[in-house]
């Protein structure tokens, strides 16, 4: 922890003034805009549904140990690297690889991950928007069990249970028999035999999604969901129309609201009977599970997923910072904010699950569900028990919509920025057109996910593209910056920005620890691969669907080796010369503004005449000393 705390005592340079304004690309209006936008990006649905479920599945409170270890040794160092990299050059995730041209494919991989995630992530946001609208009634639609979407088996009407629970053991049977005059035997019998489920489950699967039997039967488009999806993409388009100036201000409300609602829901849940049972289940450690490799793999995957490492979004957000912004301080604030939301969400979710378990008369472990089920089945069922349930439902799903949109703001901005920065003089004027094409394309690609079989497609995309490709990109990024560009050079760049000497801790993490741990987790995940199963009935996906999933993974990671092969094939020289040339920064690598070139280690050769005092000695990097016939850069010998 010494490495973390030592750098916090240094404030950023006073040179961060209006003279640092980037007139072409634009920049954040304030540092708070940047921090809140980062929080809006990384604090998303995974904090609310994925983290609590992983805590439950991997030993309760014991899961915090591997999670914090992975956060400290992998998550925070990679976030710091990505943010500092983007701020130094003020470039998007593709163009920024002028630093190490050999690895430009990493940038393409990041953009593809952002695009794939944006397609299915916004569908989940559309589901939440639909729930938001249907909650605007006096009685929630999943509060009763006499609806057209209810089945004859495994159904529990919470209002019936509440009424009959007022009677003692000898009177409960007459109560149920009396209710049979209102509901059929097939509805009441499961209640009496304790074979019961929440109406919210049938509402989600049979009413909202009207889910089909499998991938082979997509069925028809659910027009209600398609309209909600269109609305979400329209909001994203309008919010990004003027760039970060608008989205940065929107983040003030979008980011703060989820924290407020989670705290309110936690306090409200704590006052209800059964909440302590859920929280006890959440924090009680099962130490024996720590010896299972899966626990550590889940911890690493969740850290990367939660912090959105190597999706390209962090690089994009930091690229709009002013050169002297204290990026180290912001890294710590953002990572702490994300971890705080995960922990708070866990307490709030398990408090509500405890309430629902008490209501159903069952244990907490029989109530908890993973991912989608936690947000759209368990929590809505628990909200029914709250006084003024529609109000709480509106607040909860408004929070989910805001969290989804705030993540998508950056995902879409990442794609647009990556395209524009490739030729900013020409494409900057066509930014709105590019934004329109991206949003329209993502909407059209998302339409199949609004069909009756869309849930299967969504789980397939999330299961394959959401975890493995970003970690592959993280390994390549660690190799590119830590070993090729050089940790020593990278630390100099950071020192020039924020006026500190980067501590040994970060040098150690970047040079070996973080990439090696990430590679180990990747290998373990590949060896211990478990075939994908359907969310609600645990039926395995067909083999052809898994092949499609692996092709999706390949789509996101193939750009790295493909780019290396293409570049090696298109330049002249021996193989060793080609590698050395592609491991050198390009001629225009460095800070965006000319005034900051005085801090840079690499100067563009075309401007060498402006710096007669500079040493024009050969370039020296990890690949050795290399002379080329065409000037690439001039290296300054560090003082």
User: How many β-strand stretches?
Assistant: 4
Rg over CA atoms:
27 Å
Q: What global shape is seen?
A: globular
Q: Per CATH, which architecture of the largest domain?
A: Up-down Bundle
Percent strand equals: under 5%
Q: Kindly, what is the distance between the CA atoms of the first and last residues, rounded to a whole number of angstroms? A: 30 Å
Question: Unreliable segments (pLDDT under 50, ≥5 consecutive)?
Answer: 9-16, 165-195, 603-639
GO molecular function, one term: metal ion binding
Keywords: Glycoprotein, Membrane, Metal-binding, Sodium, Symport, Transmembrane, Transmembrane helix, Transport
Main location: membrane
Family: Belongs to the sodium:neurotransmitter symporter (SNF) (TC 2.A.22) family.
Overview of the molecule:
The chain is mainly alpha-helical and 639 residues long. It has two domains: 476 residues, Amino acid/polyamine transporter I, CATH 1.20.1740; 62 residues, no CATH class. It has a two-stranded antiparallel sheet. Strands 2-3 form a two-stranded antiparallel sheet. A hairpin with a 2-residue loop joins strand 2 and strand 3. The longest helix has 34 residues. It is found in: Membrane. One of its GO terms (molecular function) is metal ion binding. This is Transporter.
